[in-house]
Amino acid sequence: MKDALQQFGFSALVVDDEPGMRAILNKALSKKLTQVETASSLEEAEALRKRNHFDLLIVDINLPGRSGIDWHEAFNDDERRSDIIFMTGYAELETAIKALRAGASDFILKPFNLEQMLQSVQRCLDKRMMERRNVALQRDVARSFPVDIIGDAPKTLAMRELVSRLAPSPAAVLIEGESGTGKELVARALHAVSGRNGPFVPLNCGAIAPELLESELFGHVAGAFTGARKSKDGLFRVADKGTLFLDEIGEMPLSMQASLLRTLEQKTIRPVGAEREVNVDVRIVAATNRNLHEEVVAGRFRKDLFYRLNVLSVEIPPLRERVEDIGLLLNHFSDVLARDMGMKPVVWANEEVAAMKHYGWPGNIRELKNTVERAILLGKPDLTQWLGSSGVTAPAHDLECDEQEIAQQEDGYPLGWPLKDVERAHIERVVDAHEGNKSAAARQLGVARKTLERKFKEWL
Length: 460
What we know:
Elements: H1 2-7, E1 11-15, H2 19-30, E2 35-39, H3 42-51, E3 56-60, E4 62-63, E5 66-67, H4 68-75, E6 83-88, H5 93-101, E7 106-109, H6 114-142, H7 154-166, E8 173-176, H8 183-192, E9 200-204, H9 210-218, E10 219-220, E11 232-233, H10 235-238, E12 243-247, H11 254-266, E13 268-269, E14 278-279, E15 283-288, H12 292-297, H13 303-309, E16 312-315, H14 326-341, H15 350-356, H16 364-378, H17 403-408, H18 419-433, H19 438-445, H20 449-459
Parallel strand pairs: 1-2, 1-3, 3-6, 6-7, 8-15, 8-16, 9-12, 12-15
Antiparallel strand pairs: 4-5, 10-11, 13-14
């Protein structure tokens, strides 16, 4: 169970006023789940739930000051509902009925056998695991449909215009860009507006063993080689009248590059072991994160194939060069991923978007999407810690900020920020440090709690 549950990023919150019980459950669950938090009171639990989504709650019913059942009923959100297991040392039928009516997945009497609790946990999360798998399957199906290129940064608008102009041509297109910039998305967009009647067929050239690549692309006849018991159509035949997307084209062996060049020039293929060539009508779109000019000079890529592929080209700028798109992308991914997972979208404040614009995004849009998905599942990251962190590259945004300013901001806030943004970021950071306890945060900040409450109302 461990690998599967951790793969799907499950999290749990244990609420119990007994330190020993919290320690036992924390140790047992941490071996199986991605995130386990504990709280000794409902106030601590409420602060944790405001900042994080938990797939599972394990709550003692009899807690000081308030019933765990009443707290769960008041706090539970239909759009981000958590499964809940109630614990109690009192075997009362009325309490058990009330817990089940509150949506409890299980009702366990103390003292209990740890294995009993773990079996109950597994039943709850097995259901969620199945839901996540169904979502993953739906995403795989969704990948076969074109996706709009999101963004209104000048470089994004220029790229979208270029895609529209190049799409109707049958000529090959070479897409260049860093990993995670969305090369396949651009390839799908080219196909979607090309007017071609055939399918869009993607292939990662680096994921296929060199000795199998020829058969994968061109197909083979029965008996062509050991193990070829039946004939097989290659991807060129599958993509006939459509588009064949060759991702990571720079990984293709030189021997296959010669065969691909001949196919592009002759518009025919010869399956492995076949005597005759077959005509194909396929538009080639290739992509790479390598510099093919340098690969040609180094002798690792054929010059004639490079010129054949580079008839038309699209260069995708990295996310750090189009930070104006970050707000739109955050909202887009938040809505789409939350809908897929049946959860509540994350709402990003202007100050959070501004902080993200200071981050270098080495993983580009893929990293941004992963950040949003993790925020939906586990809560927002502490964005203020990104500023000046080891993962940050020089900020690319509309604020003018020279190298001296960047060096001065490493241990604080960017000098380009207005005072109100610095104030809010600092207050939120202090409140987070006190786990949502505004009274403690106010004491540290040297202001009244009412002042702090007023600030938060102004930011809503």
